Amino acid sequence: MRRVTFDIETEGVFGPMNDLSALGVTVVGVHDSETDEFHCYEQHEFKDMWPTFEHADLLVGFNSDHFDIPILNKYYAGDLTKIPSLDILKEVKNVFGRRLKLDNIAEATLGKKKSGNGLDAVKWWQLGLKEKVKSYCLDDVRITKEVYEYARKHNSLKYRDYDGIREIKLDTSGWEKKSPDSGGLTHTLPF
User: Fold this and answer.
1) Could you give the number of structural domains in the chain?
2) pTM (whole model) above 0.85
3) Calpha distance 71→17 (Å, rounded)
4) Which pLDDT value is given to residue 186?
5) Quick check: is 138 in a domain?
6) What Cα–Cα distance (Å) separates residue 70 from each residue in 8, 65, 73, 111, 132?
7) What CATH number does residue 66 fall under?
8) Is residue 187 part of a domain?
């Protein structure tokens, strides 16, 4: 099972009703389970990134089905929604009934905090601090990967509320089932 864990950083502003169409991607952080390597891509390097996505059996992210994939799809010649994906936030919301921040889950589950937030990354990019944005993005990818691995191992994640640390039970048994459609289709070539 080749998993690609990823996160994007953006620039621009939300349109009315949280319309994502005005947001652009500055960088994409990626971990490829096949090579166990992390890499961060700027827009001009996306052509080098697409084959990794295309050969993935599973894309893993946090709020990725609602945010990352639709925004990133604007840059892709194919359709990223055709690649099987697992959105950890969606899984948590389906069981828990509400959204939780990655930082909350990571701190309670892993004892780690994020190194910033998405608004910080937007400001850093505007200030020309590209390496800081890349580092932040890859930190989020590492945390997302570790949260995913913890959930798979323990069938649960933790979060903090006013009364302390709580646990969310998850059924992760189907998370890594190969789709009959997977198998390294090339989605970037025009047909």
Assistant:
1) 1
2) yes
3) 15
4) 47
5) yes
6) 11, 7, 5, 31, 24
7) 3.30.420.10
8) no
Range of the domain at 75: 3-169
Domain assignment present for residue 184? The answer is no
Task: Please write the tens of the pLDDT for every residue from 43-52.
Answer: 999 999 999 9
Query: Coil, strand, or helix at residue 26?
Result: strand
- Cβ distance 144 to 102 under 8 Å? yes
Q: What is the mean pLDDT of the chain?
A: 90
Asked if residue 166 lies in contact with residue 158, where contact means CB atoms within 8 angstroms, the answer is yes
pLDDT tens profile 113-144: 888 777 888 898 899 999 999 999 999 999 99
Residue 176, domain member (yes or no) = no
DSSP 39-100: EEEEGGGHHHHHHHHHT-SEEEESSIIIIIHHHHGGG-SS-GGGS-EEEHHHHHHHHHSS--
